[in-house]
Amino acid sequence: MSDLFDEPEGATPLSEEDKDGLIPTWVASRADLNAAEQTNIAAATTWAYGRSWKVDDFDQATLKRIHLRMFGDVWRWAGGYRDVLTNIGVESHLIPPEIESLLRDLRSQTDGEHTPWSSDEVAIRFHHRLGLIHPFANGNGRHARLVTDLVAVTLSRPPFSWGSGADIGSMGHARRAIIEALRAADDGDIGPLLAFARS
Description:
It is a single chain. By secondary structure, the protein is mostly helical. The protein has a single domain (17-160), classed as Fic-like fold (Orthogonal Bundle). It has eight helices and no strands. α2 (30-49) crosses α3. The radius of gyration is 16 Å and the shape is globular.
């Protein structure tokens, strides 16, 4: 039996319809899928860092375009908001207004006059909320980390290290640490997530 669609702890399981969206015909195992996605993400990261970003550049179309760049060679549904309820996230019809609220808050929190937190904390709070909304069928954590890194750069901060490059995608110490940090943030304590992001 193939392990192709086995998900690590805390990951959003794909629906049968989502699984049908797999593009590469050579993918037969989880290792194959991870490799295909990682190649796609590496190209998207190069594209993203080859651009100059301002906070105002982050709108719904841009978030979708980044997701499409990250996963569009692997999944037909890449770049589109999910239309089903998942184990994490808001109901699908609430995704656009929740994303719009998140982006509006990001702009107001970085306007220079009403900055409530440090630039790092603004970015990490953005990351946490984007993850809670969970706009896509899959890839939400990886997408949120890349977008958050781009937000940090626009705020004159370096990209986050996210556990010093540890493999967050597979079960291990780094994945357990980020899951625990996200749960603490769910309860209002952003400190562990901020510390993990800069570790």
